[in-house]
Amino acid sequence: MPTYQRFEELPVWQEAIILAERCEDFLDEAADRLTWSKRDQIDRASLSVSNNIAEGFERGTTNELLAFLYIARGSTGEVRSMLCYFERRPKLAHLKPQITQLKVTAESCSRQLGAWANRYKTRVSPVCATSMTKAGPTIKSRRPAKRGPRNSSNSSPSTCRPAIPADRKPPHAEGGGLNLKSKI
Asked: If we measure between CA atoms, which residue out of 155, 2, 162, 147 comes closest to residue 66?
């Protein structure tokens, strides 16, 4: 099992940097065919992926790491959405192979980030499940509800607490490096 001491060693960070570099190359080729705002948006979103991975890795708690992994994953979605738009534009048809390769790289980053976050999510909150609704994420308790008057020990969605304190440091912040059981 590899142990990571620096974010630069993480395979997902390395792939995210490749995504940012390739997006910049794409923007150089498409510069005269895109508005400044679209170029700026995809440029910022693509670099945001690696930056948020790095910032999360350097943070002191598992909850902060998770938050930044999800932000990074959201940025991969933003990059893919913009690439889907560019793919539909006739004036960018000559760049379609490059756009397709960028989408593949962004999807790979997203999958790796999701797998990494899921490993930590189960460590942080083994008795709570998060589900997505149209209104956003909701937390549901996996424990059966207790009967009788509600009290602080009742495990309802509003009192569902992470099993690991929010201020607990992730394994790599304790000096031992980040040890991933499976390849991300």
From this structure: 162
